Amino acid sequence: MIRSFNPPVRTLMGPGPADVHPRVLAALARPTIGHLDPAFVTMMDELKDLLRLAFRTENALTMPVSAPGSAGMEICFVNLVEPGDEVVVCINGVFGARMKENIERTGGIPIVVQGQWGRAVDPNQVEETLKAHPNARLLAFVQAETSTGASSDAQTLAEIAHRHDCLTIVDAVTALGGSPLEVDAWGLDAVYSGSQKCLSCTPGLAPVTFGERALEKVRQRKTKVQSWFLDLNLVMGYWSGEQKRTYHHTAPVNALYALHESLVMLAEEGVEQAWERHAHHHRALRAGLEALGLELIVPVDERLPQLNSVAVPGGIDEALVRSRLLQHYNLELGAGLGDLAGKIWRIGLMGYSSRPTNILLCVGALANELSALGHRTDAGAALEAVRTVLDQKTPAP
């Protein structure tokens, strides 16, 4: 007989999902009401305001898509790309490649700026590519490449795009709430993210924001949007308006409670304070890893604080280490993808996962398991290195 599912209690320090804050889990259990209930509509308006705070934007069309971050990606491409459109797309990891796939599926023509895995997108390559393709009207890139831990300069890339009369589509799935993201100040046109990373929420929602330039392109489309569910012309009727909504779909009511609570917590902490907490904890984790003789693959000035890609030492079976960490410590780390499969561990410090106890657990557990497999480490020195950095400042999660 199949019984109720009771999952093990894990510490999630992979590329996502991250640990969900207890306040967010409690919000999920609140009474379900109708998705057109006036009380729920009021909460939706608050949710849009909170997302504007997180994205640092005044964009009217800022909302969560009722689907995971991949749907956030798709809503941008199906609305902004028409058949025959030339789109410059930057690929420096798995998620840039997914952008290219979206362009192809919408009938667009991808023009690839091929970057190096583990490195930021090169602005000079982008500039040269846009010069060579004057008909392109869109530039797509990943700000925070989750597959490698590389952070690209979204502000500079947007400036280049606009000089060449291009709009930007930006993947900020791992960036939102964890590292600087300034939608209005940087002039980003369409940005998508996910609920399960630095927002400390459950998987399944995709915050997005669209600026006026992007919406004007949607209004001027000559063809129907490929997807009915993700057609902004239809979705806007549900997420816009003053206390009035046009029925589009049954929203995931309790999941939106959870996102609302996670964003209330972000507002309480302060967006810039959350950025600093992630950066501070990254420095502590890095100190511990380096004391173990481990190396991060991304150059210092191109690293994401919330996603750390660590080179696996020679002679160590990376999958075995992850298995032992899960078995012995209930600790989840991520594996490498694509070109980096079998070569790295991805250690996430996202949202509620970015706290001192997790860092100490991760460094100590890695030290023990690597030692057991023949890689000499000094757990005491590594933990002391972590504590030294943590003691410099202790931001609350």
From TrEMBL:
Gene3D superfamilies in the cross-refs: Aspartate Aminotransferase, domain 1, Type I PLP-dependent aspartate aminotransferase-like (Major domain)
Annotated EC: 2.6.1.51
Residues where N6-(pyridoxal phosphate)lysine is found: 197
Name used for this protein in its record: Serine--pyruvate transaminase
Alphabetical keyword list: Aminotransferase, Pyridoxal phosphate, Pyruvate, Transferase
Keyword Disulfide bond: no
Source organism of this protein record: Thiorhodococcus drewsii AZ1
Domain Aminotransferase class V: 71-336
Pfam families per UniProt: Aminotran_5
Family designation: Belongs to the class-V pyridoxal-phosphate-dependent aminotransferase family.
Domain of life: Bacteria
Binding site for substrate: 346
